[in-house]
Structure formats: C-alpha cells, structure tokens
Design goal:
Layout (H helix, E strand, L loop, with lengths): L7 E4 L2 E2 L6 E2 L14 E7 L4 E7 L4 E7 L1 E7 L4 E7 L4 E5 L4 E6 L5 E7 L9 E3 L12
C-alpha cells in the first residue's frame, strides 16, 4: 500500500461576489492533476459514512464545495484524517492504493467532487470493504 505522506492538500481560491461567491475547483496546470479523465460528484447525506474503498490505479483530486466532510485514509498500518468543506476549502490529492472512507459533518448533505485520473471502473480497479472491516472509531 501507498505511504500516507503522498496525500497532498492544496488551498483553493475563493472569489467574493455580492451575487454569490465563486469557488475555483481545478485548473489544467494544477500539481497532481496531469491525467484528468473524469469528474464525478457524490452527495453524502447528513451523518452518513461512505467507504471503505481502494483504487488500484486511479489517483483522485477531491474537493467539497458544499458542506463539510471528514476523509479518513488508511494504508494498512496508520490513519490520516483530513476535514475539508466550504469553510476549509482545499483540494486533496490521493494516490492509488490507499483505503479511504468519508463522513458528512454538515447539518445537511454535502457534495464531494472527484477529478479522477482514469475513467471509473468497478470490476478490477476498485476494492470495496464494509465499514466494520477496518477498525476505525467513527464519531456521529
């Protein structure tokens, strides 16, 4: 499995506008965004937890433009936790071969955006485990 130190966090720009703020998500020349193949969106309901998943080939660039989400990454030995959202607006680069799960911490549903390095494939590329298969204490 991959080293958790390879997970990177990048501060994203927010532009104030009296009619509604503008949030930058991804730029072609962003670090760790060379192979953008697909962007997909995942809503996560209040108090919900999604995971555990491990992508064998895909690298991810995760952004939460709506809400607040706690991401937990696991490499078989250690955990790394990162919280992002509207008030802590960052992009998380996640290399392949790291398990991850995520929990909505917002009062309503949150939106997770993934700019993936390859087109999403379920069969051979992704490994999915139920939440109780990795011993992590989720606080609800």
């Amino acid at each position: 499995m991959n080293d958790l130190k390879k997970i990177k966090i990048f501060k994203l720009q927010k532009f104030k506008n009296p009619k509604g703020n503008i949030l930058r998500g991804f730029r072609k020349n962003d670090k760790y965004l060379k192979n953008s193949a697909e962007i997909y969106f995942s809503w996560i309901n209040k108090n919900a937890i999604k995971g555990w998943k491990l992508h064998k080939k895909m690298t991810m660039n995760l952004v939460v433009p709506i809400g607040k989400v706690k991401f937990v990454f696991y490499n078989g030995k250690n955990f790394k936790t990162i919280i992002v959202g509207e008030k802590n607006y960052n992009r998380i680069f996640v290399p392949n071969n790291i398990f991850f799960a995520f929990q909505n911490l917002y009062k309503e549903k949150s939106l997770v955006v993934n700019n993936a390095s390859i087109i999403h494939q379920k069969k051979d590329e992704i490994l999915t485990l139920s939440l109780n298969k990795i011993n992590y204490l989720w606080k609800i």
